[in-house]
Amino acid sequence: MIILDGKKLKQEILDELKEEVSNLLIKPKLVVIQVGDDPASDVYVKQKGKMAEYIGYNFEHIKLPSDILEEELLTLIDKLNDDKEVSGILVQMPLPSQINAKTVQNRVIASKDVDGLTDINTGKLVHNNDTLISCTPMGIVDLLKEYNISIKGKHVVIVGRSDLVGKPLINLFLNNDATVTVCHSKTNNLESITKLADILVVAIGNKEFVKADMVKDNAVVIDVGINRDNNKLYGDVDFSNVSKKSSYITPVPGGVGPMTVAELAKNVLKAYKINRH
Amino acid sequence: MIILDGKKLKQEILDELKEEVSNLLIKPKLVVIQVGDDPASDVYVKQKGKMAEYIGYNFEHIKLPSDILEEELLTLIDKLNDDKEVSGILVQMPLPSQINAKTVQNRVIASKDVDGLTDINTGKLVHNNDTLISCTPMGIVDLLKEYNISIKGKHVVIVGRSDLVGKPLINLFLNNDATVTVCHSKTNNLESITKLADILVVAIGNKEFVKADMVKDNAVVIDVGINRDNNKLYGDVDFSNVSKKSSYITPVPGGVGPMTVAELAKNVLKAYKINRH
Description:
In chain A, helix 6 crosses helix 10. Helices cover 42% and strands 17% of the residues of chain A. Chain A has ten helices and eleven strands.
């Protein structure tokens, strides 16, 4: 069993980007908009700021009160869309209930949509056109490629169908010639399907949900879950038992999480280039 | 075994639309652009014209020489996008090789994209927002619903991953709470996967490719193939043998094909309403 070391690959990616950015006269700039005081969001935004500082990106964290109106948020995004200094715009989820998240995400201009969440970038991914793609799915595929795990012709089973992870993964894996199955909360006999997976991706946010008897021998197991319990992090996979029968597996933490940050870093530079073009 | 009668349902849909359109003072208008002289395209455009005439839509068939430049085609689309008389614009595929089909399809404004092929409408479908959706996939789901075949929790296996059929079907079925598997030319052990299907959809364009031993007992079988051989039409499914073990099956012709025309008719009225809004 080999552990897929996302932390190590992240560092390599950041160092490459740092090198490239050191040669740029005008630096890329990432703007993160946070609404309200969700503590998990604070952690994520801080990670993004550290990443930006390390690489040499300009970084702005705009923190807004939780009672802000949707219209005010949209006006802010319009301003950032037009701002030539801004390469990438990221709206940290979750948003308070008076704000429609889809409306807000789609207001970000496609060329600065470093989360790959706009309808237009999602459609481009489906049609296999080069675009800004959601960070976690890209991180998963890059991690597999780093370890020379072939995807073509493999049966990939994705558990979870979120807009951020599950759905873009379908298309990324299809574009890499995998056979893809998507399962979710309405799936019958889930374990009969997860057992078919050559590559199993779990992204449901349910602590250690996937047990060893749900996994085929020698499967590659990708755990996207980040579940906090008593200040400790757990994945969606029962690592200690599943790791015994898998060929490759991601740890939590240190697997997919760091890759998400690395891919965001890549997207900021990509967006910078698109906007300078 | 019950035959899913797309021809009958198409007629019902067309009659409903005809009734609704008879009450409109300004009629919806469908414009079909055809480039070159592909004989199959001639047939398809003619079908669309007949549908429009039956319902009472205005219809314009713009036939362009096969050596037209992409730029000229894009200028024409811009003009139709701006034309308030035009509700829906459809560019008949295939296009000659000097023209980039994706560029052309994406030039159609989303609100007139009755084929549901633009990046933005594709992204909206992925995100389960109401939009204009590709006609054949919509026709398949409507046909299943007409016969009260439940989709939720069912394992749907789609063979074929085209932008027009396979890919939008993934999202339509996911949005209806099915577990979805997508197979294609790079899939290993295809029959081991097709045999899992509660609902099997085949859209590969390969005459009678799916044999009885690839299908589970009592499966619902949807045949999207239209293969011409000696002036006779064949599906992608070996109907005479597969029909013996399936619970429901679509014939070719008379199954999915008519539904595609019916859904186009629905999209034209939907686009009309969006544009009048």
